């Protein structure tokens, strides 16, 4: 297959690009400069340093010619801060590009697409009684993103959305998203224990995300070739871990502490902290994609996803503890100013 990717020089995109190439596929990517220094980008990948959102439809169609699959490995998540209304920013970066690019891809004869989404969409569909879309603009935006993908899916054009959870692994030269966790844990630095919710989360490594992207693309291409294309939303998880288990690894990576004491935080305590965060956001003119008070409901549950979809997409075992360890070490270096890294950009 000939793959066109948006975001192929990023953490996830570059991992997937290498796996596509290893399996005999060709990859070209539209990516934003600057490239992260020292990143092991596949030498066989064609890199076009342009913003897809600023190219005309005719320019995009020219780039799409001869491609078999489209991969959208870009966008922003809830950890990137925006002023109100935050939904508009999510629409700009995560939804509007697909509203434009998916029909263009169909026009160019591309057989399907793979989109990197969020496991919050999986949760919202699994637990409608939580009314997550009403409480959290980011979660609503991810559900709306899936609706766009479903709208353009048909028997000749299969779109698969990967509902991605916590991802661990590093790309040399690029700032990890986990710097925010280092910042949060600083408040417990002088305490003999760390307070954290009693829940847990699904997770996987960067390599496993790449495998899922390749598997979803190959499945979409085959389905469309046989006029059996459809919309697919994959619940993605290779590991499910409690926050306590996760933080034990974090502290080993961050400070060499072998068995940090973790104390479960009652829900009301987390909600009270959320009220403080609401005030902080207001003072800084930040609109929260995930409401910090409502977040207590999510953090206190075991947001565990069955691993069936990942297995079906061809994900294999990986060293999740090493991936967490590497992510936290680099995040600490970034937090302490010891590493000069490229951060996440929406455009």
What does this protein look like?
The strands form three sheets. The protein has a seven-stranded parallel β-sheet, with helices on both faces. Helix 2 (57-64) packs across helix 3 and helix 3 (86-107) packs parallel to helix 6 (137-151). It is 44% helix and 16% strand. The mean pLDDT is 94. It has helices spanning 11-22, 57-64, 86-107, 119-126, 132-135, 137-151, 179-185, 206-225, 243-255, 267-283, 295-299, 308-312, 320-335, and strands at 2-6, 26-30, 46-48, 69-72, 112-118, 158-164, 166-168, 194-196, 200-205, 231-235, 239-242, 262-264, 302-303. It is of the alpha/beta class and 347 residues long. The chain has 13 helices and 13 strands. Strand 1, helix 1 and strand 2 form a beta-alpha-beta unit.
What is the topology?
Blueprint: E1 2-6, H1 11-22, E2 26-30, E3 46-48, H2 57-64, E4 69-72, H3 86-107, E5 112-118, H4 119-126, H5 132-135, H6 137-151, E6 158-164, E7 166-168, H7 179-185, E8 194-196, E9 200-205, H8 206-225, E10 231-235, E11 239-242, H9 243-255, E12 262-264, H10 267-283, H11 295-299, E13 302-303, H12 308-312, H13 320-335
Parallel strand pairs: 1-2, 1-4, 2-3, 4-5, 5-6, 6-10, 7-9, 8-12, 9-13
Antiparallel strand pairs: 9-11
Helix pairs in contact: 1-8, 2-3, 3-6, 7-13, 9-13
